[in-house]
Amino acid sequence: MNNFTITVPATSANLGPGFDSVGIALSKYATFRCEPSDEWRFIVPEADRPFIPSGKENLIYKAAIFTATEFGHEDLPPYQVTTSNDVPVSRGLGSSSTAVVAGIELANQLLDLALSEQEKVIVACKIEGHPDNIAPAICGGIVIAHYDHDVPKYVKLTNGVDSLQWLAVVPDFHLKTEEARDLLPKKFSYKEAVYASSTGNVLVAALAVHDWKLAGEMMEKDRFHQVYRSPLLPDFAPVAKALKTAGSVGTYVSGAGPTMIGLFEQLSDDKIEELKTVFPHLYFESLRTDTEGVKVERCPQKEVSEA
Q: What is the dihedral of CA 187, 190, 193, 194, to 10 degrees?
């Protein structure tokens, strides 16, 4: 079998009020080099080893064998998967989704399934339970999706979004999605639900017509999760204020956090350096929108010389 490399973009979910349904693919990547082996083996960067198993407990393998089963296959040929990971674990940038999408694509390649984009999204939703990270990781761009244990419905926005800058502000600690989700209310009043959903509706409409200022305003009016998770993110309020001064149209908590992201139409390197001096304990990285999603590159076969 051929060697090949799978590349999956980082993602940022929610964008404020688009809770569990809106996400964006970013120009930050996890790369998985796949080659035949005598047994399943996952080689990960040293910093990630405390969090990522090296055997069949690895999420990539679990997603791959789930995909195989979904399409009538009982097993997969063993492979060694070497990860080069620029997506930090448990920081709100879709690290688990990169593994799930890589696993789906791994099965797709090993079994010659020729899965369509939608088929990959369907399988990923069955694994993840919601589409906010996995859909943009597969499709690229900004994706607005709905999933109710059926075929997911989604819309991909790519036109014009590659001009935007997304400034990721990453704290130096992990935050598990389950921990952040436990803080959310179990119920909303009718009035609160209308306010929260209408804010999400305007966010999506603003993104579709490229009204970035309005989109940024809606990001900061979220009622679904950010207000409840802010106690876990002591830097959120001062960072949002500083990014606004630097020209951000809006700042939001990426996924469950702790990463915070500011949306800019234009941001100079000098401004980023100024922010770094104000918040020396935080990591800043300016990212663009990835509009391609998951990619596969097959390694060329080595030529064998005749004796």
A: 180
State the DSSP code for 49.
T
Alpha-carbon gap, residue 84 to 47, rounded angstroms? 11
Q: Is 211 helix (H, G, I), strand (E, B) or coil?
A: coil
- Main-chain phi, psi angles of 113, to 5 degrees: -75, -25
The CA-to-CA distance between both ends of the chain, in Å, stands at 23
Whole-angstrom distance, CA of residue 225 vs CA of residue 222: 7
Within 10 Å of residue 96's Cβ, how many Cβ atoms?
18
Task: Decide: 294 and 6 in contact? Cβ < 8 Å.
Answer: yes
Domain boundaries, the chain: 4-158+291-298, 161-287
The whole model's pTM is what?
0.92
The region that residue 35 occupies, defined by phi over 0 for left and psi between -120 and 50 for alpha, beta otherwise, is: beta
Residue owning tokens 């010389």: 305
CATH of domain 161-287: 3.30.70.890
Give φ, ψ of 200 to 5 degrees: -65, -40
Per-residue pLDDT tens digits for 120-170: 999 999 999 889 999 999 999 999 999 987 889 999 999 999 889 999 999
How distant is the alpha carbon of residue 161 from its chain centre? 16
Q: What is the pLDDT of residue 301?
A: 60
Q: What is the pLDDT of residues 232-266, one digit of tens each?
A: 899 999 999 999 999 999 999 999 889 999 999 99
Decide yes or no: CATH 3.30.230.10 for domain 4-158+291-298: yes
